């Protein structure tokens, strides 16, 4: 894996950024945690790709708060049109 940013999915909607940071901390320095709304997924950024690899290997498929986590390398965000509802007349 080349990046240090991980996609983390299938966690409880009540999970906090602090809980995710605690979960990933044993694998290295967590530099940023972002939960996307109340959707049950987010992103964890580690200080190196090696640490991200270790976290992914250990936590993908593991149980966290009664749910099976999905951990994978984050993909770049797709470009979106600025305003999809804009209509030309």
Please tag this protein with its features:
four-stranded antiparallel β-sheet, 6 strands, alpha+beta, globular, two-stranded antiparallel sheet
Topology record:
Blueprint: E1 5-9, H1 17-24, E2 30-35, E3 41-46, H2 49-59, E4 63-64, E5 67-68, E6 70-73
Number of strands: 6
Share of residues in helices = 10-25%
CATH superfamily: RRM (RNA recognition motif) domain
Give the integer mean of the pLDDT values.
91
CATH topology: Alpha-Beta Plaits
Rg from alpha-carbon coordinates: 15 Å
How many domains? The number is: 1
Question: Overview of this structure, please?
Answer:
The protein is an alpha+beta fold. It has one domain (5-67): RRM (RNA recognition motif) domain (Alpha-Beta Plaits, 2-Layer Sandwich), CATH 3.30.70. Helix content is 21%, strand content 28%. The model has no long low-confidence stretch (mean pLDDT 91).
In short:
The protein has 89 residues and is α+β, with helices and mostly antiparallel strands. The protein contains two helices and six strands. It is globular.
């Amino acid at each position: 894996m080349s990046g240090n940013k991980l996609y983390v999915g299938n966690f409880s909607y009540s999970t906090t950024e602090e809980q995710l940071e605690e979960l990933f901390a044993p694998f290295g320095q967590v530099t940023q945690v972002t939960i996307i709304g109340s959707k049950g997924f987010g992103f964890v950024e580690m200080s190196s790709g090696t640490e991200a690899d270790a976290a992914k290997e250990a936590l993908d498929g593991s149980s966290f708060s009664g749910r099976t986590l999905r951990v994978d390398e984050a993909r770049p965000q797709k470009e979106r049109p600025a305003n999809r509802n804009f209509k030309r007349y």
